[in-house]
Amino acid sequence: MEKCCTCEKCNAALKETLSIIGSKWTFLILWNLYEGTKQFSQLQKSLQGISPKTLSLRLHELEAKGVIIKTVYPEVPPRVEYSMTDKGNNLKDIFGELIKWSNNCLK
Predict the structure, then answer these.
(1) Which bin fits 36, alpha (ψ -120 to 50), beta or left (φ > 0)?
(2) 77 φ, ψ (degrees, to nearest 5)
(3) d(Cα 34, Cα 93) in Å, to the nearest integer?
(4) How far is CA 22 from its chain centroid?
(5) Is residue 38 helix, strand or coil?
(6) What is the DSSP annotation of 39-95?
(7) Residues 52, 55, 61, 63: what is their CA dihedral angle, to the nearest 10 degrees?
(8) Span 24-105 CATH architecture
(9) pLDDT computed for residue 3 by the predictor
């Protein structure tokens, strides 16, 4: 890995990244969305133990940071779907490496 020219720059970048993906449940929400577009209820079902309030908050945070996109369809009842943006998809390889590291090093 190439070392950054200033530690302050690296620290700031890591701090910003962790502010986006470091909250409880966020990694798992994103990991589920890599499978494809999902509705709120599908995410809640696949993330056993997450409260609707927490899921809603995390989705809102990820949308505000441009990592996911929320699409609301004008139907009755309204249908809302969440999917990855290009910015979010850029994290997929990093997440894969973290999972690989976990499988190899946390046994």
Answers:
(1) left
(2) -70, 160
(3) 11
(4) 9
(5) strand
(6) EHHHHHHHSTT--HHHHHHHHHHHHHTTSEEEEEE--SS-EEEEEE-HHHHTTHHHH
(7) -100
(8) Orthogonal Bundle (1.10)
(9) 59
CB 70 within 8 A of CB 59: yes
Query: How sure is the predictor about 43, in pLDDT bands with cuts at 50, 70 and 90?
Result: very high
Supply 95's token pair: 């997440």
Which of the pair, 60 or 17, is modelled with greater confidence? 60
User: What does the alpha-carbon distance between residue 55 and residue 53 come to, in Å, rounded to a whole number?
Assistant: 6
Asked if residue 30 lies in contact with residue 59, where contact means CB atoms within 8 angstroms, the answer is no
Structure confidence by residue, pLDDT tens digits, 66-102: 999 999 999 999 999 999 999 999 999 998 898 899 9
Instruction: Give the mean model confidence (pLDDT) for residues 21-47.
Output: 95
Mean pLDDT of 13-19: 86
- Tell me: cis bond preceding 74? Omega within 30 of 0 counts: no
User: What is the biggest distance separating any 2 CA atoms in the chain, rounded to whole angstroms?
Assistant: 54
